[in-house]
Design goal:
Order of helices and strands: EHHEHHEEEEEEEEEEEEEHEEE
Pfam families: HTH_5 (PF01022)
Largest sheet: 13 strands, antiparallel
Keywords: DNA-binding
Protein name: Helix-turn-helix domain-containing protein
Organism: Fictibacillus terranigra
InterPro entries: ArsR-like_HTH, HTH_ArsR_DNA-bd_dom, WH-like_DNA-bd_sf, WH_DNA-bd_sf
Length: 307
């Protein structure tokens, strides 16, 4: 989901402009279920290629679609795909809490974990391909892991450390983590539940049962070299948040664990762990996506609201 507030006026104007044309809405409809190149879109809408190219540029500038150049019979072709399923615009004026000036945001590449304790099946795919050998936990400390775009394992955990660069007297109101992930099944299986747990500062926050491992279509961001048959392709974008009231999953209260249970005064970093517990009812593994694979162009995103 693309979330915009009235405080983000430049982005709001770009998105509103992109959605203000029937031609661009028709393009988004065509991209609802599959990727298409510019010539295919022009043919479907019975419009000149130049007109489609201009409108594609507007949608891409707004961040609503993603384009990539792929080999064609003659030269290359620009292939388009939709980035977001939903767009949410919050037009309420901020009163300080949650104002852009009071938000600290950091995106952590998925390979930049500082510790791992995992069990096979497991593996890492970077932007250059698969790290060999597969199913070797020791490989999770290979230097090339820093370039990971897909990480998977059956059970265990990986740990990240997020720096907190906040003003000296800042009071944290909420901490939020979002990422794209799914279960890890042989090949893929939409009915493969997995109990995925997150921890903040070694305190368990929430366990979410992912319904399955998704691979019936190509991920929207996946490059041409990424295997298409019988492989995981994309995940679900999930958001965990903790504030003074408790812990939330996609804005639904799931636990009474609150900020006072995890924060330490004058703390300079947050430890974030994601994994599968050894005694979980559904040990179905995990696939964690980077910003160049799957459906969503982001890594692990931390957002801190403070006053």
């Amino acid at each position: 989901m693309l979330e915009l507030t009235i405080d983000e006026s430049d982005a709001l104007i770009k998105v509103a402009h992109a959605l203000s044309s029937k031609v661009r809405i028709d393009i988004l409809k065509l991209l609802n279920t599959k990727k298409m190149n510019i010539n295919e879109i022009a043919e479907q809408l019975n419009l000149p290629v130049s007109t489609i190219a201009l409108n594609i540029r507007v949608l891409e500038t707004a961040g609503i679609i993603y384009t990539e150049l792929l080999p064609a019979t003659r030269g290359t072709m620009k292939v388009c795909s939709r980035v977001f399923e939903d767009i949410h615009m919050d037009l309420k004026m901020s009163t300080g809490y949650g104002h852009k000036e009071n938000m600290y945001q950091l995106e952590m590449p998925i390979g930049h974990y500082f510790d791992a304790n995992i069990s096979p099946t497991c593996g890492i795919i970077t932007k250059n391909g698969v790290l060999d050998p597969l199913d070797e936990p020791a490989l999770f400390y290979h230097p090339e892991r820093m370039n990971a775009q897909l990480i998977w394992f059956r059970k265990g955990y990986i740990d990240y450390r997020f720096p907190l660069q906040l003003p000296p007297n800042a009071k944290i109101q909420s901490v939020q983590f979002s990422m794209e992930l799914c279960s890890e099944a042989p090949h893929y299986d939409h009915n493969w539940p997995s109990d995925i747990t997150i921890w903040i500062n070694d305190t368990e926050i929430c366990t979410w049962t992912c319904p399955g491992d998704f691979g019936e279509r190509k991920g929207k961001l996946n490059p041409v070299w990424f295997p298409t048959e019988g492989h995981t392709q994309y995940g679900l974008l999930k958001t965990w948040k903790i504030n003074e009231e408790g812990s939330f999953l996609d804005e639904i209260l799931v636990s009474q664990t609150s900020l006072k249970d995890v924060l330490v005064d004058k703390q300079k970093h947050l430890n974030f762990r994601i994994g599968i517990k050894s005694d979980a009812p559904n040990i179905g593994g995990i696939n964690l996506f980077g910003n160049q694979l799957g459906d969503y162009p982001q890594n692990i995103l931390m957002r801190v609201i403070y006053s």
